[in-house]
Amino acid sequence: MSTQEPVPTLIALSGLPGVGKTTLARRLSSEIDAVHVRVDTIEAALTSSGIVDLAGGWPAVPDAGYRVAYAITRDHLAAGHSVVADSVNPLAVTREAWARCAQTSHANLVNVELVCSDHALHRRRVEARRSDLEGLTVPTWQEVEERTYERWDPPVLRIDTAAGIDQAVREIMAVLSSRRRK
Question: Do 92 and 133 touch, CB atoms closer than 8 A?
């Protein structure tokens, strides 16, 4: 009798800075025993190492952090670990790259867009945020408002974090549970 290994899942979070992606990713990855891959951590390490300055600044290597995150994610998925990918994920090209990570690793994909419908709450979160990583400069509210963020074309699980992170985790867990039963 052969036992079939469970298929890992890539939960690709997206959303503007300050909507609660990292808080949710930490909680969710703990709940489902998944690896948390945070683009901010990678980009902060690249900045602190001096490599970004040597390359000519972020404009010279705008996707470096994402490329490292994709590679790390593929490694974890290939090893059978589920991954919670934590990034703004603002463009169709980045969303397609996460989908390729899942596809090439034969993993399930759940795209989750986090929003905060309470504009004042979102602003307070951004303005109160302090960097927890050396090399990471958090954006201002003006930078968040001016950021390029393309609308999702394909269907996506959209979760409002104004109701709180606990509720958001429950919603994602319900979707994961329903997909396992299929």
Answer: no
